[in-house]
């Protein structure tokens, strides 16, 4: 793969509890592959993933930006 074809990835780690959060925030965590504390998921950097991260930014940390 050339540098132009490489896909950037983001490592997302859940740091906050979904307890007392809205259903859509819980569903977003599951969509990101997170549903337990300190679980890490590696996803391709895309506008859709960025939007999901923005929605639950108070419960996750992101590496690889």
TrEMBL record:
Transmembrane segment boundaries: none
Self-association and partners: Part of the 50S ribosomal subunit.
InterPro entries: Ribo_uL30_ferredoxin-like_sf (IPR036919), Ribosomal_uL30_bac-type (IPR005996), Ribosomal_uL30_ferredoxin-like (IPR016082)
Large ribosomal subunit protein uL30-like ferredoxin-like fold domain mapped to chain residues: 10-60
Gene Ontology biological-process entries: translation
Domain of life of the source: Bacteria
GO MF annotations in UniProt: structural constituent of ribosome
Key words of the record: Ribonucleoprotein, Ribosomal protein
The protein's name: Large ribosomal subunit protein uL30
Keyword Transmembrane helix part of the UniProt annotation: no
């Amino acid at each position: 793969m050339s540098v132009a074809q490489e896909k950037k990835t983001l490592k997302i780690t859940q740091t906050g509890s979904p307890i007392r959060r809205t259903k859509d925030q819980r569903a977003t965590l599951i969509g990101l592959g997170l549903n337990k504390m300190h679980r890490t998921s590696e996803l391709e950097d895309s506008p859709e993933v960025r939007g999901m991260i923005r929605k639950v930014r108070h419960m996750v940390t992101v590496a690889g930006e």
